[in-house]
């Protein structure tokens, strides 16, 4: 056995992952979403497509008996996984930002009507 996991296990798993991520990237093109969200998710998808083959090499190809290539490949794999996680956190932060903007817009549109109605009735909450 060359690596930690046989290639016949990690290879097909990576292929399925690549197909699913590629389908997700194609679906993102036509999805109705804010452009900032689309850019972040597209970048994250490309990072995942790079990370999958690197992880196959790390798990199945590089030999544990050769420390320098083993450490190099695993260092790259861990860096890519950290970048994928960072992009996921960036997506969460962006979604929170978009939610705040949407809530603020909603409050302004609803709050403006309430304030005008209250000014017309003289502040009486029971008036029609």
Task: Give your account of this protein's structure.
- By secondary structure, the protein is mainly alpha-helical.
- The chain has one domain (7-114).
- 83% of the residues lie in helices and 0% in strands.
- It contains three helices and no strands.
- Helix 1 (7-30) packs antiparallel against helix 2 and helix 2 (35-61) runs antiparallel to helix 3.
- It is elongated and about 85 Å long.
- The relative contact order is 0.11.
- The mean pLDDT is 89.
Write the layout of secondary structure elements.
Layout: H1 7-30, H2 35-61, H3 67-121
Helix pairs in contact: 1-2, 2-3
Shape: elongated
- Given the structure, what is the number of helices? 3
The stretches of 5 or more residues where confidence is low (pLDDT under 50) are none
Strand composition percent = under 5%
Radius of gyration: 25 Å
In N-to-C order, the SSE pattern is HHH
Question: From the helix content, strand content and strand pairing, which structural class follows?
Answer: mainly alpha
**How can the largest sheet be summarized?**
none
Number of domains: 1
Average of the residue pLDDT scores: 89
In short:
This protein has 128 residues and is mainly alpha-helical. The protein has helices at 7-30, 35-61, 67-121.
List keywords for this structure.
128 residues, mainly alpha, single chain
